[in-house]
Fold this protein.
Amino acid sequence: MPFFRPSILTSAVVWCIFFAAADVSRAAESSLDQLAKEFPEQVRPLAQKYCVDCHSAKKRKGELDLTPFHTADDVRGAARVWQKVIRQLRYGEMPPKKSLQPSTDERERLISWAEKFVLADAVQRAGDPGLVLMRRLTRAEYNYTIRDLTGVDLRPADTFLEDSVAGEGFANTGEALFMAPDLIPKYLEAARQVSAHAVLTPSGIRFSPSDDPYDWTAEAAQRIQDFYAHYTDRDGRLPVADYLETTLRYRDRDPSVNLSVEEFAAQRSLALGRKLSAKYLRILWDALNDPHPTGSMADVQRQWREPKTLAEEGLHVAATHIVDAYSSDPDAPTTFQHPPDTGRVRGSGSLWHSKRHRKVG
């Protein structure tokens, strides 16, 4: 059995559809040409005889004027008019009962020609949306656009006039959404309202739900708190014992396991159920392995190197003892609770600046 690749089969189907559509289009064009030839001799005389007395430029009964249709090209530009003619003829409402009536053959001939012509014209125009009018956005579209651009649901268009509804019952058509002069001040006010929520930042512009600068400051502070909340406990304090325990585990890991500090931090984050900062853990690890520690860091390294147990509780207790022994005032800016600046691990800028030392037994 021959084997066909899916791409080849798909291409074949696409080409078949293309040629079929081309055949339909050519057939519709051929049909239109034939119907256009029939219009002057077989259709227009019937319309002139039975219809124009009521549907002319003077009378326009039912808002319908059939006098402008001299050729089939005129009919192509008024498909809706001829759809109405077809309905009136089929339901027997045209011509009126008291007017001269066409024979059954004439009525069927007129209906048949009009239906075929409208259908052939629709087939040939398939894919053509026709006249597309420039229009404004609806109130909802305007609000959604501002929300997508700014990231904030400001809804400035709620003060706009209600959107009109076109004849088809839709409010988003070009015929209904014209630009009224009364809307210009509304658009200007909406622009002022949106710009009042713009906040200048070092990296560009962001938009706030509030237009009050005090709220902007509070939002920035909240974002900082939310960022550090990933790495702190419920009281907002850094769990230093967890970091020290992680360094102890990393120090005593299986030598055959090749993991970086950052990769080990990711594993411990999963085990602890809370996120550890790989950056802070790297600073801590480098400080604890500094070959030339000074000041209190020498005592911290000595304490850190002493515990050799692999028991989980023992490691955590050892880490806690180090924290207790070498933490000063928790509110001071250079204690365990405050991550140091990168590269500052010696002297007065050491990782922890201790004001008191307590011997760990």
